[in-house]
Amino acid sequence: MIEINKNSTNSSQNGKNIMKHIIEQIIKKPYLWGLFFLIILGALFSDVFLTPINLLNVARQVTILGIAAFGMTYVIIIKGIDLSVGSLLMLINVIIATYIGDWSILSICILAVAIGALVGALHGLIITQFKIAPFVVTICTMSILRGIGLVYTNGRPIIPPIDNGFNYIAAGKLLNIPFCVYILIISAIFLQILLSRTVFGRHVYAIGGDEESARLLGVRVVRCKIIVYMIMGIVVGLAAIIFTSRIRVGDPTVGFGMEMNVIASVIIGGTNFSGGSGTIIGTLVGAFIMGLINNIFNLLDIPTYYQSIFSGAIILIVVLSRKISEYKSE
């Protein structure tokens, strides 16, 4: 009897410790407060918000943004930036739309990822070999890639003549959950493990913390940066596959302003814009926060241009609050 009471006491204590740990983690991560606040806000203002159909719709909408934001997390951790995200997604979209119906789905996916990896490698090479700021390089390629896309399509949409099942990537479901949501989750798990549990991930953090110290410690900084920008390009290629599968057309007008939402997801998710810290899981939460904001605005029938104001304001508030907390700690 005494033993039973002792076990019961231990179980109760373990439960309290787990809850305490969870609460401490929530307090340390402000973006979780933002997520909870939006969920409560959405539930109060709309009866539809917490329905499974709406929540799955949010998850589906977040997929493209979230996957692209995972790559941006790596880039910002090493104190980089990539402003060409929207233009690259558009270019891959119009190119692969050309081959839907003629090529196999696997071939089209390989082409999309290869284009993204190639552009990412070029970004990394130019930045590291010519010592040009990432902001300058990627804002130039943003214009170049969009121009190539417009020339390729002559400014007109490309409508595939035959759908060989490519739309199933975005529209298909498994256990009533869209395939694209599984892709989002698998990508998040893989890239989080790569970042937190591998030598390469430690090198990424080291470069973001102090690039010169990392070089002196034997980190191959140039190679690591090139790989990071290749990862950025690859995830944009993956996002473009899902995007093309969803809209079923190659549209040279898409992607404008996408980089803003991608960067917002990363910063809201706790990644330091000054580099050296960040997680994929935090970015995933940040992407869902952006998705929930858009969803709530849509449910309340608020015009889309207010969403841009709100997104920009959120980034500014997060950065300012972080700076204020840094000054206080000093």
Notes on the structure:
With 330 residues, the protein is mainly α. It has helices at residues 2-28, 30-45, 52-77, 85-99, 105-129, 134-153, 168-171, 179-196, 199-209, 211-216, 221-247, 258-268, 280-299, 305-329; strands at residues 173-174, 177-178. A hairpin with a 2-residue loop joins strand 1 (173-174) and strand 2. The radius of gyration is 22 Å and the shape is globular. The N and C termini lie far apart (55 Å).
Question: TL;DR of this structure?
Answer:
The protein has 330 residues and is mainly α. Helix content is 76%, strand content 1%.
CATH architecture designation: Orthogonal Bundle
The outline comes out as globular
CATH topology: ABC transporter involved in vitamin B12 uptake, BtuC
Largest sheet: 2 strands, antiparallel
**Rounded radius of gyration (Å):** 22 Å
Order of helices and strands: HHHHHHHEEHHHHHHH
- Number of contiguous helices: 14
Determine the mean pLDDT. 88
DSSP strand count: 2
> Strand order of the main beta sheet, please?
1-2
Structural class category = mainly alpha
Roughly what percent helix?
A: over 70%
Instruction: Kindly estimate the percentage of residues that lie in beta strands according to DSSP.
Output: under 5%
